[in-house]
Amino acid sequence: xxxxxxxxxxxxxxxxxxxxxxxxxxxxxxxxxxxxxxxxxxxxxxxxxxxxxxxxxxxxxxxxxxxxxxxxxxxxxxxxxxxxxxxxxxxxxxxxxxxxxxxxxxxxxxxxxxxxxxxxxxxxxxxxxxxxxxxxxxxxxxxxxxxxxxxxxxxxxxxxxxxxxxxxxx
Length: 170
Prior knowledge:
Glutaredoxin, globular
């Protein structure tokens, strides 16, 4: 009986959803499974090209270059806030490469709130975490995921990607 109870409990633990249960399409339309990044931290950021925080692309790129052996940076362009990401996937990628030298992965444009919210962001915004949960408030919110696919912290837009509160977690 104890063994059976233990097995049921273990099953419940292992079936707990993580980001590894999700995938996305990159700018070329290739499906990327987040489970491919097991063993590394992941920084997921909703981005926009015409925002006051757009300059954070530069620091996201620097973070990717400096800590790439420890963390995978993934940008998710979204047009949910003030129409600040109106471009096509091709225009967004071109803008990011030309203006900020972005080489980290960018997803196709997604919805990060509302009725059409991307399933990954629905999952992320409902996770219990030491910071806050609920809808994304603006562009460049950041979700730091641990090596096991669990949310470590969520950071608001004003937190720079190179801020010690993020880099100390890497």
